Amino acid sequence: MVYEVRQVDISARLLGVAPVLLVEDVRAAAAHYREKLGFEYESFFGKPANFCIIHRDGCSIMLCQTNDKQSIIPHYRVVDRLWNAYFWVDNVQQLYSEMQSRGATIDYGITNTPYGIQEFGIQDLDGYDIGFGQIMD
């Protein structure tokens, strides 16, 4: 199959991305991310509250409460060792120490991967794996 490469005038840029995670309890999930991972949030949306955007260092995750627990499926249950979100960081060692001291549930400790990344992973209240990695020099 041959793909055609087109020249496109790109005048609009993507400014960020926010994975959306289905959670059992949006208030508990947001509090967990604040206390254990250092994220912040301003408010909850919906009546009753069912949505929150958490953020840290210009990165965001959207948390959406669901009444269907069966719809909360961490990716690693479908594909072995796959995260639901992955963040690139500038000091993986320091972030790892911070999250350990906050009492985050460490899924796996700092690892030097064969693909040139030093990374670690945590698991949140709903079982999602969140990865944090730094390109090794």
From TrEMBL:
It comes from the Bacteria. Gene3D superfamilies: 2,3-Dihydroxybiphenyl 1,2-Dioxygenase, domain 1. It holds the Pfam family Glyoxalase. This is Glyoxalase-like domain protein. Residues 13-135 form the VOC domain. SUPFAM superfamilies: Glyoxalase/Bleomycin resistance protein/Dihydroxybiphenyl dioxygenase.
